[in-house]
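[agent] plan:
  1. take the single chain provided in the ticket
  2. run structure prediction with default settings
  3. attach structure tokens to the ticket
  4. add a short note for the reviewer (M.T.)
[agent] executing step 1
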Amino acid sequence: MNRKTPYYPNIFFFLLCLCVSIDAVSNTLYALSGVPLRAAETRGTTQIQAEEEKIEAAFIWQFLQFIEFPKVATQDAFVVGFIGTSRVEAFFAEIIRQKHLQDGRTIELRHLNSLDEIARCNVLFVAPSENAKLTQVLNKARGRGILTIGRDDEFLSRGGMMNFYIENTRIRFEYNTEEIVSSKLHFSSQLLRHGRQYSKTAKE
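[agent] step 2 finished; step 3 output follows
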């Protein structure tokens, strides 16, 4: 990401966290996808990046409202894994405090220290710091019904499902059509209409 990029007002971060109904979430996603970022020339690089990571964490929580995961025993915890160095993990932990999924499952956060731990996750966020071994990470997740989310220009082309990017001073997300179709996950059209479709076949 271009670290000179402005950031979203904090109000949108809290709106994302507080939405509970599908309609409200959908409306919030629409608002966040269309509202320009505020100017941040007086802000430091670290502060700008933190604001972006807050929004990414909030988006991840909202994604879970629109994606149906493979059926499991409801008493099993829903595991969201984070690999690499990123504050998205800490911001996500703040968002889900005392929250549950719609099926009643609790959400467990795990910071992964090895690729072997990936198989235990339902969701995997891959920080940009892991780009050097991104292919290995995504190969471990493929075919297991794991939602993979990243923030890198090559994340989708290398097999990821969802990716954050900035376009015209707006944070947006894109999704890999082929990976979604071949996965065990069901994505609501309400979610996909707010993102940009990526197709490796179309690129070729």
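[agent] step 4 note for reviewer: Confidence is low (pLDDT under 50) at residues 1-9, 13-25.
[agent] ticket updated
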